[in-house]
């Protein structure tokens, strides 16, 4: 049984690199598609937002001399590339997927609207929402929060390469302690970098819970959907 009827799954673009230093690792992509198919077979309605850090990150580009607006636009295009790749991988497994874009670029993808995304999901298709919010100065975390709220998702599942939220970065601090659950107020008070501040406040204000978990371990997405206590639950 699925604990959630409709989800917004946020995937890390950087995780798509797998063991590579750049681009898309075909094995990691196939693993993601297989995990998504597992929950799709349970009847879960799925919206997805995927980052573009494996190709280009606007903020780091600005630090290298790119104009910030153009850098963010390049990052948006990187998310479209990743979305097309994921769509192709899902189709290969027999799951219908549709790429929606926040900026017009037919025939690469259909122009996003809340109603179109919901219609896709209710038909049993996976709605992949790309190009962020369509505006510069907003991260894909903010984009996923916005889309999760718009499509009236029960939860946002934030797939990362760590198994939850810690008191500090577990990759840098071996003494870091994991939270099983935490409130938005505590995240803000502690200054934890779970998502950017805009995304965190949007989820808090609209009462959208978030589960942070390790997506890179096959089977974890299904465990979260079935309500197993893995990762960290963020709530009001």
Summarize the structure.
The protein has 236 residues and is of the alpha/beta class. It is built from 8 helices and 11 strands.
Index terms:
236 residues, alpha/beta, globular
- H/E order of the elements? EHEHHEEHEHEEEEHHEHE
What's the mean pLDDT score? 95
| Shape assignment | globular
Helix content: 25-40%
Compute the separation of the termini in Å.
Answer: 25 Å
Count all strands and give the number. 11
Count of alpha/pi helices: 8
- Order of adjacent strands in the largest pleated sheet: 4-3-5-2-1-6-10-11-9
What is the strand and helix layout of this fold?
Layout: E1 6-11, H1 26-40, E2 45-50, H2 58-63, H3 68-92, E3 97-101, E4 110-111, H4 114-122, E5 126-130, H5 140-150, E6 155-160, E7 165-166, E8 178-179, E9 181-183, H6 184-190, H7 197-205, E10 210-214, H8 220-225, E11 232-235
Parallel strand pairs: 1-2, 1-6, 2-5, 3-4, 3-5, 6-10, 9-11
Antiparallel strand pairs: 7-8, 10-11
Helix pairs in contact: 1-3, 5-7
